[in-house]
Specification:
The structure holds two protein chains of two kinds. By secondary structure, chain A is mainly beta. Chain A has one helix and 17 strands. By secondary structure, chain B is mostly beta strands. Classes of the chains: A mainly beta, B mainly beta.
Chain lengths: ~210, ~220
């Protein structure tokens, strides 16, 4: 059973100008929002999908239970950041939009953290290095990695989802299908990916005007 | 990064944060391996020696063998091969390796077997660093593509008072056996053989009510 439940509210800054002769609608720049991320006991694969000026661990994951941990893959190896005595070991460690981390909740209770920030728009490129990394969609969207989120890998590359504290393996096949099935993620859920060669995950997003 | 420090970097976070500790409410996790021959940095299909085509069919099975300190133990399978464009491949997923922990070295072989012909072959051993916890199951990197002989099919045709038995040329050396009854009691027979470009054939008299033939490797 998936471990993350979120609520997204998009606030679209808008204003209307009217004159005697026209009522053209004018839209504000940018779209912002928040995501409530539920951290269940144990391991959670979390991804950052909203941009903000402060993307530090201390800002994103506040008031965590002692013993919490963040595992981030750096150059193919895990870097650990432990929360103890009310603070993170490395509070200034940052997470980029489109990047994911493991978050370990040592408590028996779920904990909710809230991400706030701006929706990135336009052509979005998520660089996936060769080897191991943790990635997520660069916009708060759920669905199948290929069919809905536009991820294309090379033959036999692997994706891993955290299901009941176990990493389940998915293989991208030469014909573009997946084994055992195409992996699907929820909003703000990330996945571990293991690629033979680096690749760019390119998507396009517009907040959209009616 | 040197191997020791790699393992420390892998195990340390897991142990330090209680991932490997029951006190954290998470049971100790075993090491895991991805039982597949198509994965990131791995492309090792099992193919027929004669044609180069991938092995497929319900009579072909594959097992994962784990080398313990004293034995070679089957820990997954027998599982079937894929078909169609994926013939030669198997994708059995993440397998927990009993008695191990994540980050530990482990050695595996793959056993391929034809359940009809009883043909069996094993790959060379492959050593990997096990996954588990936050580490993905280890891919069997280093596994080599295995070539297996295609099953030898014996054919029979009627030529008057004789029957012609034939099988593909290029097969391993095979002996012909006969039984006059079923259930069979097989005995080897020696006959004169001839060959063309594709088949080995031999002729036997159809003098008795019925006889049954099979090939067996020499």
């Amino acid at each position: 059973m998936r471990t993350l439940q979120k609520l997204i509210v998009l606030l679209h800054a808008a204003s209307c100008l009217s004159s005697v002769t026209s009522r053209a609608q004018v839209y504000g720049v940018g779209a912002v929002g928040y995501i409530n991320v539920l951290l269940k006991p144990g391991l959670n694969l979390v991804g950052l999908q909203l941009d903000s000026a402060n993307r530090s661990v201390a800002s994103l994951f506040t008031d965590m239970p002692d013993g919490s941990a963040i595992y981030k893959i750096v150059d193919g190896l895990y870097a650990t950041n432990i929360y103890e005595g009310g603070r993170w070991e490395r509070p200034d460690e940052t997470i980029s939009v489109g990047e994911g981390v493991f978050v370990f909740n040592p408590s028996t209770l779920s904990k909710t953290v809230t991400f706030v920030g701006e929706l990135l728009q336009g052509d979005l490129t998520n660089s996936i290095p060769a080897g191991l990394s943790i990635r997520c969609a660069m916009i708060p969207k759920s669905g199948k990695l290929g069919a809905n989120l536009g991820l294309r890998l090379s033959a036999f590359d692997n994706v891993y989802l955290n299901i009941n504290n176990t990493l389940k393996v998915f293989t991208f096949l030469p014909d573009g299908n997946w084994k055992p099935s195409e992996p699907s993620v929820l909003t703000a859920e990330s996945f571990v990916v293991n690629t033979a060669a680096s690749t760019n995950w390119v998507t396009h997003f517009e907040a959209g005007h009616p | 990064m040197k191997l020791k420090s790699y393992i420390a970097a892998l195990i340390g976070p897991l142990a330090g944060a209680g991932i490997l500790s029951a006190s954290a409410g998470i049971d100790t996790v075993p090491g895991t391996v991805n039982f597949a021959n198509g994965a990131a940095q791995l492309n090792a299909p099992v193919v027929f020696k004669e044609s180069g085509l991938g092995v497929a069919g319900s009579d072909w099975k594959v097992e994962l063998l784990f080398q313990t300190s004293s034995n070679l133990v089957s820990i997954a399978g027998p599982t079937a091969f894929e078909t169609g464009s994926l013939a030669g491949y198997f994708f059995a997923g993440s397998i927990p390796v009993p008695g191990t922990i994540p980050g530990e070295f482990a050695t595996f072989r793959i056993r391929i077997q034809n359940i009809i012909t009883q043909f069996s072959a094993e790959t060379e051993p492959v050593e990997v660093i096990l996954g588990g916890g936050i580490m993905p199951p280890a891919n069997l990197i280093g596994l080599k593509s295995l070539q297996v002989p295609a099953p030898v099919r014996l054919s029979i045709s009627n030529n008057g008072s004789k029957s012609i038995l034939s099988w593909p040329i290029g097969s391993p050396e095979m002996a012909l056996q006969v039984s006059d009854q079923l259930p069979p009691i097989w005995r080897s027979i020696v006959t004169v053989r001839s060959t063309n470009e594709t088949f080995i054939s031999t002729t036997v008299d159809m003098g008795v009510i019925s006889q049954f033939f099979r090939l067996i490797s020499d």
